[in-house]
Design brief:
Distance between the termini: 89 Å
Shape: flat
Structural class: alpha/beta
Radius of gyration: 25 Å
Amino acid sequence: MEINDQIIAIQYESFLVEVTNLVQNHRIKAVQSVQTISNTLYWSIGELIIKKQEEFGWGKSIVELLSNDLSKTIGEGISWSPRNLWFMRQLVNEYSNLNQVDSDLRNIKNLVTNVPWQHNILIIQKVKDPKARIFYLESTIKNKYSRSVLLHQIKADSYNKYLQNPSQNNFQKVLAEQFLEQAQESIKSTYSLDFLDINKPISERDLENSMVEKVKRLMLELGYGFCFIGNQYRLSLGNKDYYIDLLFYHRILKCLVAVELKVVEFEPEFIGKLDFYLQLIDDQLKQDDDKPSIGILLVPEKDHLEVEYALRSVNKPIGVSEYILSKKLPKELEGKLPTTEQFKNILNE
């Protein structure tokens, strides 16, 4: 192949990638558009059911009748099942009575219509606190949660963890404004690692190996967009080698994410080490179109003021998060420790 042919081939490959990206983005927008239109329709049907029940005093049987007649006139489909029609009604009824939430109905409707219908049903079924519902709706939109990831976030009580322990990072200082919000939404303040079934002291390497063995559950806990690259990922500088505990690429943030694991409480020097690793990653692994690499330091316990001071002089984006290994007592301790009620009685005495 001549040089000119090679240049043309390279140019064409670049052209093909651009066209492919345009088509894929169009498909995504088309799916999102259909989803929004469908959810808007479901909301309107829910409103109409409530309106007619109040106007004519109709009871529950009207939904059964409507389901049968819609299936006959429009065609069979899950959209017209009695259960789904009741969800349409429930959705409007519950979100229309959010007097205690600092958000107007129009904003709630906008959130609902931009979240997949099955996600909406899941939030209605599993979450009762109105503010928590809004949190999960917003998180789903921002992080593009799949239904399984959303369910995991709800089960892990992400909303209350967010309230009790806001994320600690230096993203606002070192990241560009257009990249900041996505990074803050993607890195949580607390990670639940109880799926590892670890309830006794463990080394950092054993913790890492346990996470790698159950990488699918780990990805669900980290959130949407994380792609696993490797563990103990080697980087070299001069004659020395350095090893990153876990290395990921984040498809949404378009950057590499280094995770360092510690089994002891936070120490300021952990930040310096991770900052050093991020400099190596940006120099040796980062592609020209990648965003700045991010570091996540996972520790079992941290002092918030100490973390704040440690992050002040760091130029690389780093988030410090706690992890929870297990909510269960080891079998040998079951029945040998006071219950919650017994502890309360002791304190009261």
